[in-house]
């Protein structure tokens, strides 16, 4: 964890291996990601750390009739992401657009939506990127998904995951993010469901019943910001591939190294942890720089919000154009990715030194 030992570890790592190399321009191969105890690993069992971006749009564009995505998702747009040396992309999705609904435009939902999302995910993987599929917007029992709900819903959300997992079960570059930001529910409801809500156990069961064995991210309470009882309420998973997900912003409760050590580091000792969203509300990048430094020392993965040209008016924005032009906040994230280079692997700390994995 951060402190004198962590700083010594970084110094020793640089001494033993040299300055982290920038990745070369050789073609990337389709990645693989799995879980081994408390670590994400590649196909050879080597620890990996995800460093990526959120590509928002597919959760809202379809219900707002903006298109299937908000902005380009062609090869040029993917190349702009790759130029930042990211190794993962999180795709927020809409359950009703995926499953289809009579209330939605059929050209923007159902088969059309599924085909577009799947093809985009395949092209991201072909560019060497791990893809995190996130159930972001869910609906109420009497309405389609047009906003974030406190928790996934029984029936519709489990149908969504059965369908998504069936489609992607043979794609081992995929990570499933079961539900974006649980809030205003108890930990018991989070795991077991309540009052029409599905629990995380229901979502895990839906994914595994489809034959998918890939990692499943389960975000904590407080809009994803609280992992304090995550281990206590962890669902059962026959594949033993659960990952704790957490969302961290400068306006949330847990914003210091000491809090990250206590609440997140303790979980990371038992299961992999991915910060699936983070950012600075003022877009200056100071908070995120500190968080990434902590995560790099702690072996925690992180995925920044968001690869959308919002100029920080609608939340932390990494880019001002889909060609990859960075905002001030984005420059901080981009420069960290490029300095770390690829492949991204976690050093193993041992008494008296560091052995690169």
Structure description:
With 357 residues, this protein is of the alpha/beta class. The protein has a single domain (4-18, 49-355), classed as TIM Barrel (Alpha-Beta Barrel), CATH 3.20.20.80. 31% of the residues lie in helices and 16% in strands. It has 10 helices and 12 strands. The chain has helices at residues 4-17, 75-82, 95-99, 111-126, 156-168, 187-192, 200-209, 257-268, 286-298, 328-340, and strands spanning 34-36, 39-41, 51-54, 88-94, 130-137, 174-177, 216-219, 242-249, 273-279, 301-304, 348-350, 353-355. It has an 8-stranded parallel β-barrel, surrounded by 5 helices. A two-stranded antiparallel sheet has the order 1-2. Helix 5 runs parallel beside helix 7. The longest helix is centred in the first third of the chain and has 16 residues, at 111-126. The two termini are 18 Å apart. The relative contact order is 0.15.
**Fraction in helix:** 25-40%
Main pleated-sheet profile: 8 strands, parallel, barrel
Trace the largest sheet across and list its strands.
3-4-5-6-7-8-9-10
| Helix-strand string | HEEEHEHHEHEHHEEHEHEHEE
**Tally of helical runs:** 10
Report the portion of residues in β strands: 15-25%
CATH superfamily: Glycosidases
Sum up the overall morphology in one term. Answer: globular
Name of the CATH class: Alpha Beta
Q: Report mean pLDDT, rounded to a whole number.
A: 89
Low-confidence stretches: 1-26, 342-357
- Oligomeric state of shown chains: single chain
Q: Which structural class should the secondary elements be placed in? A: alpha/beta
| Whole-angstrom Rg | 19 Å
Number of domains: 1
The CATH architecture comes to Alpha-Beta Barrel
Q: Assign the CATH topology.
A: TIM Barrel
Give the termini separation.
Answer: 18 Å
Number of strands: 12
């Amino acid at each position: 964890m951060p402190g004198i030992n962590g700083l010594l570890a970084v110094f020793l790592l640089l001494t033993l291996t040299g300055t982290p190399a920038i990745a070369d321009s050789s073609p990337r191969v389709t990645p693989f990601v799995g879980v081994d105890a408390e670590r994400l690993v590649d196909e050879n069992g080597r620890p990996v750390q995800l460093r990526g971006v959120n590509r928002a749009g597919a959760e809202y564009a379809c219900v707002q009739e903006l298109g299937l995505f908000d902005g380009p998702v062609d090869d040029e747009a993917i190349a702009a992401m790759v130029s930042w040396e990211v190794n993962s992309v999180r795709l927020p999705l809409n359950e009703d657009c995926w499953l289809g609904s009579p209330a939605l435009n059929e050209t923007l939902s159902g088969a059309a939506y599924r085909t577009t999302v799947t093809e985009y995910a395949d092209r991201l993987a072909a560019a060497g990127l791990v893809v995190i599929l996130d159930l972001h917007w869910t609906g109420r029992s009497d309405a389609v998904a047009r906003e974030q709900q406190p928790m996934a819903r029984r029936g519709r959300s489990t149908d969504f995951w059965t369908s998504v997992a069936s489609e992607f079960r043979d794609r081992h570059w995929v990570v499933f993010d079961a539900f974006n930001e649980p809030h205003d529910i108890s930990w018991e409801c989070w795991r077991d469901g309540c009052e029409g809500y599905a629990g995380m156990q229901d979502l895990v069961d839906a994914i595994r019943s489809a034959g998918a064995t890939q990692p499943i991210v389960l975000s904590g309470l407080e809009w994803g910001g609280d992992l304090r009882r995550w281990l206590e309420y962890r669902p059962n998973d026959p594949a033993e591939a659960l990952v704790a997900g957490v969302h961290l912003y400068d306006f949330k409760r847990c914003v210091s190294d000491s809090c990250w050590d206590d609440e997140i580091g303790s979980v990371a000792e038992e299961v992999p942890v991915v910060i699936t969203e983070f950012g600075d509300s003022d877009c200056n990048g100071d908070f995120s720089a500190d968080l990434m430094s902590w995560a790099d020392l702690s072996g925690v993965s992180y995925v920044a919000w968001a690869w959308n040209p919002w100029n920080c008016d609608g939340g932390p924005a990494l880019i001002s154009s889909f060609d990859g032009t960075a905002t001030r906040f984005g420059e901080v994230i981009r420069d960290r990715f490029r300095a770390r280079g690829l492949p991204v692997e976690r050093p193993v700390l041992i008494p008296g030194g560091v052995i690169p994995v």
